[in-house]
C-alpha cells in the first residue's frame, strides 16, 4: 500500500502539475484571446481609418481633378485674353504707324504749301515793286507831260501875246 500511496501521491503530484499547467495554459489562452481581440479591434479601427482615409483621398482626388479642369479653363481663358491683347496691340501699332505716316505726309504737304506761299509772297512783293515802279514811272511821265504841256502852253501863250 505504501507503494500504492506513493504512486497515488506521485499521480496526485502529477495531476496537480498537470492541473497547474492546464491553468497556466488556460491563462495563456485567455491572455492570447485578449490580445487577439485587442488586435481584432485595432485591425477594425485601422480598417475604418483606412476607409475614411480612402474616402478622403477619393474626395481630394475628385476636388483636385475639378481644380485641374478649372485651372485648364482659366489657362485657356488667359491665353485667349493674351492673344486678344496681342492682336489689339498689333492693330493699335498698325493704326499708330498709319497715323504717323499720314502725319508725315501732311507735314510734308504743309511744308510744300508753306514754300509755295513764300514763293507767291515773293512774287507778290516783286509784282508790288513792279507796280510801284510803274506807278512812279507813270507819275514821272505825267509830271513830265504836264511839265511839257505847261511849257507848250507857255510857249503858245507867249507866242500869242
From TrEMBL:
Coiled-coil zones: 8-42
UniProtKB keywords: Coiled coil
Bias-annotated ranges (Basic and acidic residues): 141-155
Region Disordered, residue ranges: 141-161
Protein name from the UniProt record: Uncharacterized protein
Species, as recorded: Neocallimastix californiae
Amino acid at each position: 500500500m505504501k507503494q500504492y500511496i506513493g504512486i497515488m501521491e506521485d499521480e496526485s503530484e502529477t495531476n496537480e502539475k498537470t492541473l497547474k499547467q492546464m491553468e497556466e495554459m488556460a491563462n495563456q489562452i485567455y491572455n492570447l484571446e485578449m490580445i487577439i481581440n485587442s488586435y481584432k479591434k485595432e485591425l477594425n479601427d485601422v480598417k475604418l481609418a483606412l476607409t475614411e482615409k480612402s474616402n478622403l483621398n477619393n474626395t481630394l482626388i475628385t476636388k483636385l481633378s475639378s481644380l485641374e479642369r478649372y485651372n485648364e479653363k482659366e489657362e485657356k481663358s488667359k491665353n485667349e485674353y493674351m492673344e486678344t491683347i496681342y492682336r489689339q496691340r498689333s492693330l493699335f501699332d498698325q493704326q499708330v504707324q498709319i497715323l504717323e505716316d499720314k502725319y508725315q505726309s501732311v507735314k510734308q504737304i504743309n511744308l510744300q504749301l508753306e514754300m509755295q506761299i513764300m514763293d507767291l509772297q515773293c512774287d507778290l512783293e516783286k509784282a508790288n515793286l513792279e507796280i510801284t515802279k510803274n506807278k512812279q514811272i507813270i507819275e514821272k511821265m505825267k509830271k513830265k507831260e504836264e511839265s511839257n504841256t505847261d511849257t507848250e502852253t507857255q510857249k503858245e501863250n507867249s507866242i500869242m501875246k
